[in-house]
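writing this on my phone so excuse typos. first protein, seq and then structure
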Amino acid sequence: MANFQIEWSIEGDKSLSRVLIGLGASLSDYRQPFNSSAEYLKRTFSRDVFSTQGRAIGERWKRLSPATVAEKARLGYFSGPLIRTGRMQNSFQSIVQSDQAVVYNTAPWFKYHQSKQGRSGRLPRRPMMGLEPNQKATIVRYFQEYIQQSMRK
């Protein structure tokens, strides 16, 4: 049996790389586990990351400045960092193919919060995409279950 390797990268860093040894020699279409993984990550990034202000991916966000809190209150927005209209939170998308999945955010300002590049001005880094060990384990489990089910057929 052949080995199968899963690799997810977030902004150039390998966030997950796992070789599933001895599984998947006869499989070539991994759309199902890639789709499950992409949907799981979109839910995690849009729901858990925002509700925990980054802690769900081990990247606790910087608090809002008192001036920003006052401005949001004045405008009638009750929300934490990165939430005013919900557009960025609801802009996670995915493209799934037989051999890969890409999860991304379509909000134009997403890249400024996610990027590890140097900061100028007042915009702090508040990443929304990342993987913690429990999320990595969930993704690996999707692939293991798919391969095991396929081998039973």
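second protein below, same order as before
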Amino acid sequence: MHKPLLDEHGRKASYMRVSVTDRCNLSCTYCAGEGQKFIPHPDILRYEEILELMELAVKLGVEKVRFTGGEPFVRKGFADFMVAAAGRFPDVDLCVTTNGVLIGKHVEGLAKAGIRRVNISLDTLDPVRFKSITGHDHFHTVRENIERCVDAGMTVKVNAVAMKGVNDDEMPDFIEFARSMPLDMRFIEFMPVGLETGWDDSLVWGCEDILNEARTLAELTPCTEEEKQHGPARMYSIEGGKGRIGLISPYTNHFCATCNRLRLTSNGNLRTCLFSDKVYRLRPILRHPRLGMEAIERVLLRASRHKPIGHDLLKCMPAGQGVCQTRMASIGG
């Protein structure tokens, strides 16, 4: 009988984000920063190792697994791996977060395998601004792939990092986008993660300001908890619209008290809080000839028990710096 992943604050970890690579085909400065050094290939978890860790996590009560990167689809064989994972864990809610550039040719196969939900990162609806933010001219490809996912019957959430002076003049376009398509357009506050990724609190476009502006453009109705389908986002339906908008406020209105997440980095480090650099190194245990999953289980239980309250870490953050040094691209979001 396996113990659940409970912490000292009564929170149960039921959701694991699994990064399969720290590499990406875009160069968003708030994510990667300058001069990023990638994890050497031998240090990246093999797909078989990820499946082993997932099997244990499911036995310990994890019900949802989200695959992330970097950009997961840049890793060779990732789509096939997702299909295999869906077959091995039919009762687990499997989903993926992607920048939307490479997913197009895989949409039909993923949907057929039972992958029903996808999050796509898109910070702007302006093609010129997209190139400025990401360093690449792939806007139209991403828009086409969003439509492919919607047409395949997937639940699509489009995530924009909300930043003053970057995309805070695009609310009319974001509202119209959500009005015209059956998807969730979600705004995520710029987070102080990583010391070299341009963190500046003057760039934070807070969720209350976003909501106030959105309400001048559309009639919004708060969704019920059941309609939200859980998660930290505050969701609003748009009168006469096909989609919804959502607000995620890890900086101005934290949701640490209900956090149910663990994060597994692509090199096998377990992180219990996005705002903490504390890691538990699972890869050496996994590859040790005399250790095994029992040892991994002990580490998972201990790590979960000591999961911090991220907001407490934010309050201690040095002025003008990020709350942790690790780049977002290396954590997996």
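The chain has twelve helices and twelve strands. thats all i got for now
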